[in-house]
Amino acid sequence: MDADQNRQALVANLQRVASGDRAALKEVYDATSAKLFGVCLRILGNRSEAEDVLQEVYITVWSKADRFDADRASPITWLAALARNRAIDRQRQLGRRSFKPIDEAHEVPDEAESSLASLLRGEHVRQLQGCMSELDETHQAALRSAFFEGLTYQDVAERHNVPTGTMKSWIRRSLLKLKACLAR
Amino acid sequence: MTDQELSPDEQLAAEYVVGVLTSEERAQAERRIAAEPGFAAEVAAWQERLMPLLAEIEPETPPRVVWMRVAAQLGVSAASRPAGFWNSVAVWRGVAGVASLAAAVAVAALVLTPPRVVTVPGQVSAAAPVLTSIALLKEEAGPTSFVVTLDKAHDRLIVATVAGQAEADRSFELWVLPEGQAPVSLGVLNGREALVLDTAKLLGPDGETANLAITLEPLGGSPSGDPTGPVVASGALTPV
Prior knowledge:
The complex is a heterodimer. By secondary structure, chain A is mainly alpha-helical. Chain A contains nine helices and no strands. Chain B is of the alpha+beta class.
């Protein structure tokens, strides 16, 4: 299946979930759980916490699928946002995580889509990667660790050894540039 | 809009999506998302902008138990066990005795087997199940061992094994426990996971619920027609 078909299947399954179809929930789970587990693991850095969050995510999908609006959000974005929000909230509850070495945090994957699920392929990946690469390298690294690991301004500032105020201005400037670049 | 900076709302939306806010700030932002469609739209726009970054994250298959916990949690929340049910099972267990073997089979088998739905050839079409009721069968206070779903439209009961495997010379047998009557066998679970039956007889007078239990029996099932072995799992079938 290509990205469009995948997306349509996911949309259809989410709509079936909204009407109370358990089998559809399993289909959504099968299609997306590996990706979302990867997302949660990256933020939480701990398998058992990530498993708990993933469980909550699909319980939430079950109860809130009716709020998914295919006209307003892509299904994978909706699911990924759910997973990230849950994982970030859990990470905040657990308190500050122990930091991983910076090298690991700021690895920039090669341009190849590697094992990327075709689900995300249609989502302007290349455009975003192009815009990211236009950012100052340090700022880009900071934005990446903030996004992938769900770090607070304070934590990401410590990670990069700059004052929190400096980190805020780095990330805010990066976001402004990204928005302008993506609108081109 | 200036190209020097984002509007305060837009900036907050972006920061929320990136994940740099503290929990208090996040909670505040979430209240605004719920209350202000304009702000919610800013957040949605930033989600669409930034989520493609997740393409870089390697997928990692979660352990199967995560799905089983999801299924169990959804079933549990839908279930309302009739009062007195556990008592009746406790009495029954007292009679049958609970062998340590049962506990070993039901609980220690953390090796999860994939839930399989096997239709009985020639009797059940491959039609998608219309699940109307679900039961999570487990040892009292133990983990879920079997998930039983009722497909009323096709008169079948689908049994998925979560944990536990009968020994080579024993069989799991599924029973329905009608109020005030002796247990009625629904069949032996030797790899046959879809049972075709008259669901009207299975369900209680309310047409919706049934109490189920699984016992460990001699190979091929109870020789007497009544349960002889220990109860390894039990639970109530309740409407989804």
